Amino acid sequence: MPEMRAQLYRGTYCAVWSDEGKTRRRSLRTDDHEEAQRRLIDLRQTMAAPVGATVASMVQAYLDEKRGRVVDHERMVGGWKNAKSTFGHLRPDQITRELCRDYARRRRDEGQQRRGIPIGDGTILKEINVVRQALNWHGVQGAVFEAPSQPPPRDRYLTREEFQRLLDACASPHMRLFMILALSTAGRKGAILQLTWDRVDFERRQVRLAVPGEQNRKGRALVPMTDRLHAELLVAKKAALTHYVIEYAGGPVLNIKKGFAAAAKRAMLDDITPHDLRHTAAVWMAESGIAITEIAQFLGHTDPRITYRVYARFSPEYLRKAASALNV
Question: I want to staple 134 with a disulfide (CB 3.0 to 4.6 A). Which of 32, 62, 198, 251 is the partner?
Fold first, then answer.
């Protein structure tokens, strides 16, 4: 899809783009700037998904549009990789509930055959939702989806002894640094892998997880360094070969799934994921009596009610006053 911009031309906004070296225009039929921007988005979607386009072409256009704009783009690409063989060759109107049910059954069976356990409903839901979101983005109708319900959130967090075991089990410096960053900043995996040295402020001892100018629905916080993180980052900075904080063999690390799983296995902690480190950080803060509003800021939550719902029960003062009224 060509790169477009809205440009005022003879009193009316037009969509302008380059096509094989030639400048193309299409009238947006408005002289209002905000309306022109909305119509430009609609035009992009229409051009990205012409009549008769397959689901594959629509999803790919959607993923291309979202690259660099959403935190979980990598997860979306991975989800589409699994769903493509089932949905990619179809027209949107060929997606039915029965097709989605068959897909869910097949994915569960694949997990059973490969790992001895079914692929979780949460994973299947995310894969189907990539297709659903792409068609919604295009404004395409006719598809009928059915997906598993969202499973309850994981409640696995590490004790301090378990985290030390995990750290000791890291086979490489970049995995060790990832573990310390994940716990010390409570950052999401993607935010940590995308972290660059220009957002590490040694003078103020702060780490800015957000990418300047990037807008996405999952907040990224500005957090202070712990003493341990400060020391580890100083060592890593001296050895850095790239502008990425987490690097390996002279390049950025795109995924730590295998390295994390290997370290967890060596530490005899097979039931944990990288996201559990973020959850662990929040639990430790709550257990130490840190105010929920402060934990919310640390996690980058825009609504502290979310933080309260998940982490208030770990606070030593949780319902303590209510319980005191029941003393006999």
Answer: 62
Judge contact between 187 and 200, C-beta under 8 A: no
pLDDT in tens, 193-230: 999 999 999 999 999 998 765 555 456 789 999 999 99
Beta-carbon contacts of residue 12 (< 8 Å; ≥ 6 apart)? 27, 28, 29, 30, 31
Beta-carbon neighbour count of residue 183 at 10 Å? 22
263 and 240, same domain (yes or no):
yes
Percent of the chain as helix, strand, coil, to the nearest 5: 55, 10, 35
Longest dimension (CA), the chain: 85
pLDDT in tens, 38-68: 888 877 766 665 656 899 999 999 998 888 7
Burial (CB count within 10 angstroms: exposed 0-12, middle 13-18, buried 19+), residue 77: middle
186: its two tokens: 């409570």
Establish if 133 belongs to a structural domain.
yes
Task: Report d(CA 193, CA 71) in Å as an integer.
Answer: 11
pTM: 0.66
The CATH number of whichever domain residue 167 belongs to comes to 1.10.443.10
Give dist(CA 274, CA 130) in Å, integer.
22
Q: Which domain holds residue 122?
A: 55-138
- Domain co-membership, 277 together with 180: yes
Q: Are residues 181 and 234 in the same domain?
A: yes
Sorted by sequence, the CB contacts under 8 Å of residue 78 that are 6+ apart come out as none
Structure tokens at 303: 């609504």
Average pLDDT, the chain: 89
Same structural domain for residues 164 and 245?
A: yes
The token duo for 183 is 């716990």
The pLDDT value recorded for residue 74 is 81
Element (H, E) at 7: strand 5-9
Rounded CA-CA distance 139/124 in Å is: 23
**DSSP state for residue 176 in the 8-state scheme:** H
